[in-house]
Write a sequence for this structure.
């Protein structure tokens, strides 16, 4: 007859093994779940580029050095110039179209330097319309806030049209085609409306322009401290000037 005590021993041993295995499996599962829900922590990280994307892969932000920077994108597709030209942070809207960024540069070549930085916000499907900018050409500086109007032409279409015109032979036909595109039947493809800042002549200035980008009102304090308000006509001629020293002539 079978040894009942031996059978019972094997039975309870098997149960003990199963219980132990189950305990280990639960423990491993809990450990994996805990680690999956922990945020990674880095004291320091080096990266040439970081992409921020939506769950479906739509690009929303790129942080990169110059060489790995992202070129312009329209609805998820590259257009215009390639990447590798600008270090900084580039923003993209819900459709994967570039809509602003923060970029900077600066270096010395042959004893002269160039430097700049800008924070910009783009019109929907177009280029920048609000820009905070610093530009420096070896000490000749301009910095300030720019507000611009842009025509309602998708930027990829506009770039294609400009590229086609630039490929035309030099001459009156090419110049006429470019002027027609830029003027856009009285709605310019770009017109600076407001500038508030410091210009290259070291003058603090507020410049207000019409819908064609023509300056019409200018408030200035020059580098010597002289204050002036100027009114201009459509051709840019000063038609009235109010100086802080002349009593408003």
């Amino acid at each position: 007859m079978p040894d009942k005590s031996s059978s019972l021993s094997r039975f309870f041993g098997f149960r003990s093994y199963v219980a132990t295995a189950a305990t280990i499996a639960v423990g491993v599962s809990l450990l994996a779940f805990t680690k999956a829900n922990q945020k990674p922590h880095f004291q320091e990280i080096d990266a040439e580029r970081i992409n921020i994307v939506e769950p479906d892969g739509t690009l929303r932000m790129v942080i990169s050095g110059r060489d790995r920077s992202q070129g312009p994108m329209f609805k998820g597709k590259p257009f215009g110039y390639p990447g590798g030209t600008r270090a900084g942070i580039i923003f993209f809207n819900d459709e994967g179209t570039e809509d602003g960024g923060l970029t900077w540069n600066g270096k010395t070549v042959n004893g002269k330097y160039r430097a700049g930085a800008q924070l910009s916000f783009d019109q929907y499907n177009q280029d920048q319309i609000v820009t905070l900018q610093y530009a420096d050409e070896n000490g000749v500086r301009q910095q300030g806030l720019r507000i611009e109007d842009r025509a309602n032409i998708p930027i990829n279409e506009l770039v294609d049209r400009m590229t086609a015109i630039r490929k035309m032979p030099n001459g009156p036909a090419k110049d006429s085609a470019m002027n027609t595109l830029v003027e856009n039947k009285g709605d310019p493809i770009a017109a600076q409306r407001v500038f508030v800042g410091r210009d290259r002549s070291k003058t603090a200035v507020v410049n207000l322009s019409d819908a064609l980008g023509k300056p019409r009102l200018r408030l200035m304090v020059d580098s010597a401290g002289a204050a002036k308000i100027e009114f201009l006509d459509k051709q840019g001629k000063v038609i009235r000037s109010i100086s802080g020293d002349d009593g408003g002539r």
